[in-house]
Each structure stands twice: as C-alpha cells, then as structure tokens.
Amino acid sequence: MSDNDKTPKKPDGGLPNGMFGPGSNKRWIWILLPLMFFLPMLTTMFTTDRGTEISYTEFLNQVERGNVAQVTIFGHQVQGRFRQAVDTGGGTLFGQDRLFTTYVPPFGDDRVLESLRENNVVIVTRPPREPITFFGVLFNILPLVLLVWIGMTIFRSMKAQGRGIFNVGQNKAKLYDQDTKVKTKFKDVAGLHGVKEEVEELVDYLKNPQDYAKLGGQTPKGVLLIGPPGTGKTLMARAIAGEAGVPFFSMSGSDFMEMFVGVGASRVRSLFQDARKQQPSIIFIDELDSVGRHRGAGLGGGHDEREQTLNQMLSELDGFDPTETVIVLAATNRPDILDPALLRPGRFDRRVTTHLPSVKDREEILAIHAQGKPMADSVSLAEVAKQTPGFSGADLKNLLNEAALLAAKKKQDSINMVDIVFARDKVMLGLERKNMTVSAEERKIVAYHEAGHAVTAAMLPNTDPVLKVTIIPRERSMGMTQQMPDEEKYLYSRDYLNDRIAVILGGRAAEQLVFDSITNGAQSDLEQATKIARKMVTDWGMSDVIGPFSSGEKENIFLGEELSKHRDYSESTGKEIDNEVFAILRAAQKKAKETLEKYREGLNKLAEELLDKEELGAEDVKRILNLA
Ligand code: ADP
Ligand code: ZN
Q: Is the entire prediction scored with pTM above 0.90?
C-alpha cells in the first residue's frame, strides 16, 4: 500500500525534529549520565596509586637511611613516600611522586616503629583496607547497571507504545487504520434492522452524491452510533463502507490521547485531510466519549490535550463544504457525557441506537458466526440463543470461538452442545478456578446458599425456572444459580419482582436456617436485592405507601457532570422511601425463610447432591424437588 510509506513520515506532533533529534542519539544519555556520575568513583577504586612495591628489607634500609618521609599503615600494608627518588637495585627508578608500598611481617617487628620514630618519619595509622574482590566490584557496579537497565526499559516501553519522548519525528505508530476494500456487508450484521434502515440512505448518498447535490438537500455529515459495547457499532460502520464501496478510515478516541499536547489535534487534522483526499469516504471514530467528553467536566479541571483534540474535531466537522462526500461515523456507549457542542446541527446531529440483541437476533448472530464451524446435530442455535439473555453480539461470537477451541482440544470433529454450554459459563462467569482450595466447611455453606436460591426459585409462583446450579468456584463467584426466563420479558409485575427479591435473598436465608449464622458471601445478593427494591419504590411507583411516583433520579457512576445524584423529593419523603425499601426487603426475606422451612427436606437433598456433583441442571433440580 502506497499509504504505508507515506504515513510514518508525517510529522506527528508540533515538535521540531532538531529539538529532540532522532531516538538513537538520545539513548546514550541514559548510559552516559549515570556513567559520568559513577566514573570517578570507579577509577579511584581500581587505580588508586599505591606506588611501587618494595621488599620489607629495602623498606627498612630506606628508613634507616632517613629517606622515608611519611608512611600510612593499613594493617599489614604500609604505604609511604621517599624523600628522594631511589634506585632499588632492581633498576626501578622511582617516579616523581616517589610512592611505595610494602608489607610488614604478620608476626610483628618491634624495631620498625622505633626505627621510624628515630628517623623522623610521619606515621599515620588506618584500619586495614577492604581488599578489592570480585564481589566487591560487583556490588558497586550492580546498582549502576540496574539503573541503566531500568532507564532503557522505560525508554523502550515508551517507544513501543508509539509515544517515545525522543522520537516524535520518526514515530512508526499508525496514525489511523485505513481500509480501502472493506468486505463487510449488511448481511454480516444480524438484527439491528432499524439501524440498517436508517443508514441505507447514507450508503445511497455515498454511492450517488451527485443526485443529492442536484436537489440541494443537506445530507448528514455526522452520525452517532449509540449502544452498549459489542453490539455491532463498528461492524455496522464497516458494513456501510463495504456496501457503498468507499474507503474506511478509523481511529479510536483513546488513540488520540497522546503525551504531548497538540498530537491529538494534529492526528485529527491528518485523518480528516486524508479522508477528504479519497472521497467519497467514511471516517469512523470509536469511543468518541474519550475525546468528546463534556469540556471542563471531570475531576481536576479540564484536560488540555482532550480539549484541543475536541476543538480540532469540531472545526473539522464544520469545515466540510457541501460538495464534499465524507461521512463521519462515531460510536459511544456514553452519549450522556458527550460535549453538547458535538451534537449540534451539522455535527453529530443524527443518532442511531444499537441495542442488545433479542432472542431472535441472537439466533441470527449465532448463525452468522457458526459459519465455518462444524456443529454436531445435537446443537440447536435457537436453544443457545434462549440460554444467553443479555449477551451482546461480541459475547456470542466469543462464545462460539471458545466452544470451537474446546472441541478442538478434545480432538472432536464438531462442536457439540456440551462445549457450547461450557463456553457460555466461561464467558459469563469467568474461568473455573480448578486449583482454588475451598475448605469442606466453606463448600457446605456455598452448597446450601445456592440450594437456597434454587429452592426459592423453584417453589415461589412468580419466578423463572432454574437452569443450572453450580458450586464450582470461578473467577467471579464461589457458586451460582442461574434462572432462565421462558421468553424475553420487557414488563415486570410487582409480584414477579417481589419473588425475584425473595430468590436473591434465598441464599442467605438458607445459610441462616441451616447454620444459624450469616457470612459475607451474600454481599452482591444484597446489593442486587436492594437495587431492585429501591427501583420499585422510587422509579416504578410500586409502593402503596409512596404511591404512583417516579423520582427521575439518574444513576451517574461516571465522573461526568454530576458527581452526586440529584433528588427531587423532600427529606421526609426520602425517609418514607427508605422505610418502604426496607419493608420490601424484609417481606422478601420472610418469604424466602418460610419457603425454605416448608421445603427443608428438598433444600437438604439439593445441597447434598450439589456437594456430591458440584453442578446440577434443570432436570436434576426438578427430580430432587419432586416437581413435574
Ligand atoms: P461495538 O463497536 O459496538 O463495541 P463491534 O462492532 O466491535 O461492537 O462488535 C464486535 C464483534 O461482535 C463484531 O466484529 C462481530 O463479529 C460481532 N457482532 C456484534 N454485533 C453483531 C451483529 N449484530 N451481527 C453479527 N455480529 C455481531
Ligand atoms: Zn447468592
């Protein structure tokens, strides 16, 4: 691709090349700086001038001759200086500094000191010198080597992330992805029928821009795809490019964020420039919210880099003239935190929402991704679709991939239902923790806890049937009871919700009933139950005491605009609401406890069998509880 050799040379940021120069020169700084620091230390260590070594006899001679000016005694080692240079007989002429070294006998020689004093030699005594050993040197150099190594590592990792401080000019990192021959078509996108209808017009426009220009109609330049992760936003954007047969330029919002202010903005500029050159074309910006967050929002004030990038994007969006056929698609799952400026007319003024797939959509998505994966006859994709409520398109794709890997590992010719169910649990609950040691007592508590959920779910009238109970510890849980709604539900009755809370509290109720103690294992149960109960009172008007009322309270977990929830009811209403929430929870707890007492035998049997088999399916639960 010709664009590949052009891209890297593009100046990546506002910094001139000369300022930091190419990376290879600068790298030496990391080595040189510490070296310059330690070098003097090293040289003294190795090259301390101890003068010429002379014999003990020669030493005594020179002392007696009065030619020794000064000695320094380190243990057995004596260093000193002659008054005059001497020829020690061996032909060695002492240099100008007239230094010498000798060693005194270890058994001592009383006469030496006497003689030294008689001859007016200055005597200095020092503790014995540390010998220079291999390890001594090692310990001195090791920190230095380490320092250099750490420096190099940091340097390399920065470079690997494409944001080397020193090599802005020669950054090899891609500025954006470009795909001139997108193969994705609408048939590769399952479900999302409403979205397809919406974007069909864009495809037509990209194919025949002159038709639109003729009539003077304003075509949308910016379209925002809104939806949870993995629901096919990117896929849809690519399909538009594929259907229209136009080049697809894409970049993720988080990619714009760079170390140096100005880099993000210049990337936006070159992205739009290149897309314009190849029009008709599509620009796709994923994770728009990471650039387009409300300006000045968040903790710690504004983020310069982000604001500059955003401003650049806004001016690019405004800068299109009507004859230019470039469509900008952007994806986000947080439209609420976007800067309002982005949503103004002429910018991302058109919005399309992708939802999590319905059961029928899931079946279609599974069918698409099952292509090229041989399935055993036992596999029913409709059944898999039923058992995967809440899965996104990406989750479903992942599920089939996991199942295929599993089947391959077992050397099967095709994927069967067991593999799919196993993969589903893995996608949903995380990997099994095979080597996690759970004490016998803990296992028993978990078994009763899960049996408590299962029995309440099976016995209360307004509940979804139990699909599976397991006490295999996984990444995200110690055990799990899964229920399966018969059909997708959009409306929930008060009775259903009350029973649902009772099932959620059934785990802890069983612990209390059987062990007469409670553990902290029920935290997420309690959170979930409390959340539902609160919603019943404040959002869905299901409390007789509070009456038909919805608070309009929005949860805002992100650090967008509001850090705290705003409430539009009085303090005293707040108290009443709390009381109603507590009442709902207590009633549900009571119901769970009564149910478990009534079916105590079934609870015990279920827990026992769980301890034995670890995992029970829908049929097992029915059998154990004598249900039809
Ligand atoms: P998003 O951009 O919304 O986070 P993606 O488009 O990246 O999600 O989806 C990830 C993958 O999941 C896609 O590449 C595709 O294989 C699969 N996928 C998601 N939704 C669908 C769908 N409706 N039909 C077919 N495949 C889908
Ligand atoms: Zn539980």
A: no
